[in-house]
Amino acid sequence: MDSSTTDLSFGDDELSFREEIRAFCREALPLEVREKLVAVDMFVELEQSRSMATYAAMMAGRADAMERERAISAAKLQIGRSAKVIGHQSIQLHGGIGMTMEYSVGHYFKRTTMINAQFGDADHHLTRVAALGGLVANNRAEHP
């Protein structure tokens, strides 16, 4: 591996170990602790989405169309994925009542699902960001 790139991906062993730890934690921890861990994960997803939305807004004024497209697609990708995670976790936290018509969590989840499908879903924007060379690929060439 050369010094200009850093591999931050996890191998199968690391992901498997991570899933085993999560499964153990779900079984061994009291319900209140598990709920707090899920809430922290949801908060992190929300903050990542906010950061990407801010980044896309900053890049919207750039003259380079490819930079704008890359930033907006990356933001749509992150927001779509985060909305899905937050929606699923919200329903899990609230149990079966989360999907009833009387409870707002189900309505929010359905709404975010439809918003994610508008203007291309997360998978579409992932393909688009990859086709545009990734989020930071051109920045390395411009700023050595």
Describe what this molecule looks like in 3D.
The protein is mainly α and 144 residues long. Helices cover 74% and strands 0% of the residues. It contains 6 helices and no strands. The protein has helices spanning 12-28, 31-59, 65-94, 104-117, 122-131, 137-142. α2 runs antiparallel to α3, α3 packs antiparallel against α4 and α3 (65-94) runs antiparallel to α5 (122-131). The longest helix is centred in the middle third of the chain and has 30 residues, at 65-94. The model is unreliable at 1-9 (pLDDT under 50).
Q: How is the quaternary structure best described?
A: single chain
Helical stretch count?
6
Got a strand count?
0
**Major beta-sheet overview:** none
Shape type? globular
Cα gyration radius (Å): 18 Å
Structural class: mainly alpha
Name the helicity range: over 70%
Q: Give the amount of beta strand, in percent.
A: under 5%
Report the uncertain regions: 1-9
Structure in a nutshell:
This protein is mostly helical. It is built from six helices and no strands.
Features:
about 140 residues; mainly alpha; 6 helices; about 75% helix; globular; disordered N terminus
Helix/strand layout:
Blueprint: H1 12-28, H2 31-59, H3 65-94, H4 104-117, H5 122-131, H6 137-142
Helix pairs in contact: 2-3, 3-4, 3-5
